[in-house]
Write a structure and sequence with these properties.
Blueprint: E1 6-10, H1 20-34, E2 38-43, E3 50-52, E4 55-59, H2 72-85, E5 91-94, H3 105-111, E6 114-119, H4 136-151, E7 155-158, H5 161-169, E8 177-179, H6 197-202, E9 209-213, H7 223-230, E10 236-240, H8 246-256, E11 261-264, H9 272-277, E12 281-285, H10 298-304, E13 309-312, H11 318-326, E14 329-332, H12 337-348, H13 351-366, H14 370-385
Parallel strand pairs: 1-2, 1-5, 2-4, 5-6, 6-7, 7-8, 9-10, 9-12, 10-11, 12-13, 13-14
Antiparallel strand pairs: 3-4
Amino acid sequence: MPEQPSILFINRVFPPSHGATGRVLADLAEHAAAAGWRVTVLADGAGEAIDWRGVRVVRTGTGGDRPWARGYLAALARLVVRGLTLPRHDVVVTMTDPPFLALVGPLLAARHGAALHWCHDLYPALLPVLGLRLPAPLAGWLEAAVGWALRRHGRVVAIGRCMAERLAGMGVARERLSVVPNWADPGIRPAPRDGNPLRRELGLGERFTVAYAGNMGLAHPMDGVLEAAASLPEVDFLLVGEGRGRQAVARTVRERGLANVRLLPFQPAGRLNETLAAADLHLASMAVEAEGMLVPCKVAGTLAAGRPCLFLGPGGSEAARCLTEHGCGAVLDPRDGAGLAAAIRGYAADPQRCAAEGARALAASALWSADVAGERFLAAAAALRRPAPHTVYAAPVPGRSHG
């Protein structure tokens, strides 16, 4: 009987802690366990080790209430120390929360089997976009160190073709790169707008509604959205989520008296469907400078809800390419509020277009589920455990051209 394959995932957050990386990790870990792998997830925070849906979940502990124990560096240290004490696994998977976890992949591989890095955010390149500018010598050293570490991973999984190109530019061999885009929350289902409980609570009536649901971070510019809202008093805007940029958004809404903009906190998981279904059209935003450094996961959720999406960001991003290749939205410059307003007017005046693009969005989402993505990811991991001579694995994305 063949030995059971084993895999260790390391990430700062895991449910019930909030975080997009924790959510996709939960989906993938559950899929791996169902596929016959012995799966362990190592996450930061307090709590006893538990068995969750066939997955062993281990926590690092918090380090107490001391200020130095609360930051990313402290979390990184706890994850590394605990990871080195766990039983051996065939494959150890590092993620990008906390930043620079990729640096310790080769060290962890020395204790375990092979190292695979699942890249969601590309540091340190992303730091200036987030408002953190390191001294040039330190930034240069970190860039070189991360590149060195990534080149020593057996496999690097990127969440977009744009990111894979950046990683290749850092010297990661193309035969060691796989592209596995993030997928929608499996619980998202399309639902009609009529009778939507959230619309009823907010008194939206029959007004055309545009939604932004997700993180309002510094890499997700909102100025163009608010400029468009100011010129479209007949359209309601739902801005749902938290993040470092939310306070500035709230201040602008207040100062400009934007009565058609509703700011809502993150909604409970049980209200995810009705939140997404409350809108006729969705928005996703990303700084142009961040192309290849991150890919907004909110686009996948929009498609699963059967709604068209306007991506306010660079045309080379995986999110932009997905929308244009499947004909379920459009791509605009995030700074072009006038262009965004014109695009929204076009959708509001053409319900048939909204319906047609929503149907294409749903069809596109069906091509890339958590199970399909899980199979691609585990194939990459299995290739590290049992490498086959003269074969190269590259994860294709169904329905998309990789060039």
